[in-house]
């Protein structure tokens, strides 16, 4: 199954010749979480080789235009392409009026597959197929939420222990399904006897925010952290004023939370591709793990599961 981030746009408030407004599709074992579809997302999806049929969740962090003006196009594409599966829409409950405007921004043959999932309060959790989707509040001039995807913890079978206990063939599947098997001699072998814990994988999506408790809670221990780094440290005061992070702050979060792969995005239009080494350099002073500066239409895999 596929677990990767498809980057659709990486600009902040103003798109540039090389960076579209925001848009991020996290593909996860048949689920497709479309985060913050900004203006132009529908076209960017076509350019990236993904379709409306890949989307099972639309997750909006807040209702500034660069994070939501692509909603009408995506909704209408879901309708036009006759997507048959359920599509859930998560967004701040306080922005219900804006959601309704975006959802019905123009005349089209509507669809009934989209279900509203407004978020409010300190923690909101939704079951989402094989994972749980969690929303937590961030710190921005308007109400904003970040999102996190978590696979449940499991267990990894140990071949040597299976052999030692005489477990083979169909019995292995029974052991995994039932949690124990009874051998011919009447002895019972439990799943714990033949396996070790396997932590579930996770990813977090943190957009427009100052440093706050929600940022750290979302990022704690994730395999993949997609986080805004709108400014470099020389503009730290501006970042704080407008409710944004610097690349250095993104690195601090990743280091403190034990993140495995850090993806920097949501870059101010004042920066060009030539500035990417500066973003990596500032984040790397704080974080000793892998750092990616996102570019439109690239794909970033979720790191392989820990051994």
Automatic annotation (TrEMBL):
Entry's transmembrane regions: none
Gene Ontology terms, MF aspect: 3'-tRNA processing endoribonuclease activity; zinc ion binding
Active site: 66
Family per similarity comment: Belongs to the RNase Z family.
Quaternary assembly: Homodimer.
Domain Metallo-beta-lactamase intervals: 20-215
The protein, known as: Ribonuclease Z
Cofactor binding notes: Binds 2 Zn(2+) ions.
Organism: Planotetraspora phitsanulokensis
């Amino acid at each position: 199954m596929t677990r990767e981030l498809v980057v659709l746009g990486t600009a902040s408030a103003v798109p540039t010749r090389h960076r579209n407004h925001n848009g991020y599709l996290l593909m996860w074992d048949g689920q497709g979480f479309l985060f913050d579809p900004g203006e132009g997302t529908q076209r960017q999806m076509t350019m990236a080789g993904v379709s409306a049929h890949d989307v099972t969740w639309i997750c909006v962090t807040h209702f500034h235009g660069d994070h939501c003006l692509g909603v009408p196009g995506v909704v209408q594409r879901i309708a036009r392409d006759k997507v048959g599966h359920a599509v859930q829409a998560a967004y701040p409950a306080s922005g219900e009026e804006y959601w309704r405007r975006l959802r019905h921004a123009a005349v089209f043959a509507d669809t009934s597959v989209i279900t509203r999932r407004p978020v409010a309060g300190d923690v909101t959790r939704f079951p989402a197929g094989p994972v749980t989707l969690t929303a937590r509040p961030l710190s921005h001039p308007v109400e904003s939420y970040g999102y996190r995807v978590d696979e449940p913890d499991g267990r990894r079978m140990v071949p040597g222990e299976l052999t030692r206990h005489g477990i083979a063939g169909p019995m292995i599947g029974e052991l995994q399904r039932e949690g124990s098997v009874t051998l011919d001699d009447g002895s019972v072998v439990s799943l714990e006897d033949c396996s070790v814990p396997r932590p579930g994988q996770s990813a977090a999506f943190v957009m427009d925010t100052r440093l706050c408790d929600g940022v750290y809670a979302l990022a704690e221990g994730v395999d993949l952290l997609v986080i805004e780094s709108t400014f470099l440290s020389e503009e730290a005061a501006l970042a704080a004023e407008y409710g944004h992070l610097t690349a250095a702050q993104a690195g601090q979060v990743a280091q403190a939370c034990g993140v495995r792969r850090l993806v920097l995005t949501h870059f101010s239009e004042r920066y060009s591709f030539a500035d990417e080494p500066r973003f990596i350099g500032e984040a790397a002073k704080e974080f000793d793990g892998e750092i990616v500066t996102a570019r439109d239409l690239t794909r970033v895999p979720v790191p392989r599961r820990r051994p």
